[in-house]
Design brief:
mainly beta; globular; 22 strands
């Protein structure tokens, strides 16, 4: 079963310095039908004006993933991490028993566009953690996050995986799924068919349940980049 959520149906907040679209309930946007999916709690699609950003604020017991699409994030946290996160790199911050951080657009001239994703952990408390890595932009599936950090992936406190899908010259790809797990697809760029007449466009998301495989087909000539969440 596939349930498509169109980009235009997401929550929206515009504060001038921040233009944000919320896949699930967040901040002042509340929809009791969109409270997350399995342990996936937040996907915010944020655009930040030059030199602006999120002042120091706290998190606790949440796994927070950031993926920069355009520009660079200047990150600073209470664990002593002072980092820059450029476009294409993934960051995973485990809030643990509590951490404070700030995120700013590192440029004074260019816009920053990034995805912020929250995963509810299966372990509460503990020391905060920080991971950051650039992954291959190769065709097909690239595993980014796993529960055990295998094969150089980032490790997360939850029984889930995050997989990056790129289709450029390649037209199709198939993910072998588990009927007992839940899957979520978020499309970043390009256009995809998931079969059965379901077309996914940038910003769209699809909840996928009770399937043994997921078939992705690139539509048109543009490169496809998508995130696939493999969830309990």
């Amino acid at each position: 079963m596939i349930t498509l959520r169109h980009a235009q149906d997401r929550g929206h907040a515009n504060f001038g310095w921040l233009n944000s679209y919320h896949t699930f309930s967040f901040g002042n946007y509340y929809d009791p039908q969109q409270m997350g999916f399995s342990h996936l709690r937040v996907i915010n699609d944020d655009t930040v004006t030059p030199a602006a950003g999120f002042d120091t604020h706290g998190h606790k017991d949440m796994e927070i993933i950031s993926l920069v699409l355009e520009g660079t994030i200047a990150h600073k946290d209470s664990a002593g991490n002072v980092k820059e996160l450029p476009a294409g790199e993934y960051q995973l911050m485990s809030a643990g028993k509590g951490i404070y951080h700030s995120e700013f657009n590192a440029s004074k001239t260019n816009m920053l566009k990034f995805l912020q994703i929250w995963i509810q952990p299966n372990q509460l408390g503990g020391q905060p953690g920080y991971q950051q890595k650039e992954f291959s932009q190769a065709q097909g599936f690239t595993t980014i996050i796993t529960p055990d950090g295998r094969d150089g992936t980032l490790h997360i406190k939850q029984n889930m995986q995050l997989i990056q899908l790129i289709l450029e010259d390649q037209q199709q790809a198939t993910w072998q799924a588990d009927n007992n797990r839940h899957y979520y697809v978020h499309l970043i760029e390009g256009e995809l068919s998931l079969g059965d007449g379901i077309t996914v466009k940038p910003g769209d998301g699809a909840k996928i349940e009770d399937v043994s495989e997921i078939n992705f087909e690139r539509l048109g000539e543009k490169r496809v980049k998508a995130l696939l969440f493999d969830l309990m």
